[in-house]
Amino acid sequence: MADNAIYRALRLHIAPDKFYVEPRDQQSVGDQILEIDRVTQELSLADNEGQIPPSAESRDIFGILGIINLLAGSYLVVITKKTLVGLIRGHEVWVIKGTDILSFPRATFHLTESQQRNNNIYLSMVQSVLQTSSFYFSCTYDLTHTLQRLSRTSPDFLQMPLFERADPRFVWNGHLLRPLVVQPELYKFILPVMHGSDYGVQFLYVLFWGGAVMMTLYVVLYFGNEYVDQPRLVQVQAKDKNV
């Protein structure tokens, strides 16, 4: 994996006081793990020296979307499911198919009843947005720039971490990544995600086949006699000759 690439596979360990994000790529053996303090919200890299509690809840994830702040406190947003949609110059492009939102606070007793109700509404709104199948990412390729623009960049630019060279206009989770971006050493955990759709492809598909159908109807309506009636006339003439 390139030095500026983002981790493709991660293991999230959920402990009472911290989130531990462990790289699981084949090339990441011996890499430091990301520790996120659930109380102070401090993010830091640390050697994996057995500090992850055996009782921690563990699950596989495929990236960190970022951290969002709601009434109850901060929430860690992670990618739990993904689907490969294609390749660009050999680089894998994925669409997000599942996410999880994990609360930093272990309880919401500090909120009033009204605040808890509003917090649940905001949380549902975030979940609703994340459930749309329109979020794309690549761990090795910059989706925010066109091929033409990338072809005109310098080799030094291409060696920069993805979050540093990504066009902020097209990084959908730019705000969520702010707590991580302020610490450049976390670059292998910082995943720019782009929001898009395949409506353009669907429109071209409908336009092409719709045009083909209309052209076929036009040919049948205006030139159908030549293809339908003419053989019948030939058959009639042949019968007349036989008589």
Primary descriptors:
27% strand, 6 helices, 243 residues, phosphatidylinositol-4-phosphate phosphatase activity, membrane, EC 3.1.3.64
Describe this entry's structure for a reader.
This protein is of the alpha+beta class and 243 residues long. Residues 200-208 have low confidence and may be disordered. It has a 5-stranded antiparallel beta sheet with strand order 4-3-2-1-5, with no helix packed on it. It has 6 helices and 10 strands, in the order ββββββββαβααααβα. The protein is globular.
Strand and helix layout:
Layout: E1 10-14, E2 18-23, E3 33-37, E4 43-46, E5 57-61, E6 64-70, E7 73-88, E8 91-103, H1 113-130, E9 135-137, H2 147-151, H3 155-158, H4 162-165, H5 178-181, E10 194-195, H6 199-242
GO molecular function: phosphatidylinositol-3-phosphate phosphatase activity; phosphatidylinositol-4-phosphate phosphatase activity
Protein name: Phosphatidylinositol-3-phosphatase SAC1
Keywords: Membrane, Transmembrane, Transmembrane helix
Ends apart, CA distance between termini: 85 Å
Order of helices and strands: EEEEEEEEHEHHHHEH
| Average pLDDT rating | 86
Overall geometry = globular
Structural class designation: alpha+beta
GO molecular function: phosphatidylinositol-3-phosphate phosphatase activity; phosphatidylinositol-4-phosphate phosphatase activity
EC number: 3.1.3.64
Protein name: Phosphatidylinositol-3-phosphatase SAC1
Domain SAC: 126-196
